[in-house]
Amino acid sequence: MLRTDVAQVLHAVRDVDFPAGRRELVEAAMAAGAPGDVVAALRGIPPEQYRNRAEIAHSVRLDPASDLGLSEAQRAEQAREGGKPHLSQYLREVPKPPVEDELSRERRL
Known about the structure:
This protein is mainly alpha-helical. It has two domains: 6-59, no CATH class; 72-108, no CATH class. It contains six helices and two strands. The protein has a two-stranded antiparallel ribbon with strand order 1-2. The chain is elongated and about 45 Å long.
């Protein structure tokens, strides 16, 4: 599973003139010094012409939980806990671990 998110992918292609194909997007990301996971995500999109960044965001395949803002501990808890039948583990409700909850309270003070 790729360890990147949509924001990183879109940042890597910020200087691209649209419409652009997959090859141009990959080249732009490499020229911008994007991490390998970002380049790999762009290499994995269909070889079509993209009219804007929104089309890229819908086409790139990433970790389904990458945009949910969950910590690694919360994601591990999702994987351990059962959920409703036919509910993806990425959509299961999971509380913050006590340590993270305490740290976030201290930051607010």
